[in-house]
Specification:
Blueprint: E1 2-5, E2 8-13, H1 14-18, H2 29-50, H3 57-81, H4 89-106, H5 111-127, H6 130-133, E3 135-136, E4 141-142
Antiparallel strand pairs: 1-2, 3-4
Helix pairs in contact: 2-3, 4-5
Amino acid sequence: MEFTHPDRPERRTLLGTLFPPSPRHFPWARPVQLVLRSLHIAAMALVVGGIPFGADFQALRGPILLTLVSGALLFAVDLARDLAILTQGSGVAVLLKLALLGLGFLQPAARLPWYLAATLVASVGSHMPGSWRHFSFLHGRVMRYRDG
């Protein structure tokens, strides 16, 4: 499938649009992600902290919703830059985190350990070196990594 962008007369393929030669840059992305990440961490802390104290779904509904919305928006910004993130260390960490959260949802009696594991994966995924975050499991090498 090909299309022409109104601002760029060259032809583009759907694959080229989803996986651009270099990640797209959005000047607003960094401040938006900073706010979203802060909200996400605070909301998830309330959820994970409320579980051992017996907080029910009703009590945690707001933090759960904020965690879901902020996490989805964070991931959407990364995906808008380049879908190749799904094959790289940072994207794989997000997918693993989502799988662990899903297991916690499916196994309510073991929810806390699954959610804690997801929190650890998220922390490692956010703080691992750039060469690991941008390592492509598809290509077997670091992709599009810029230090700083």
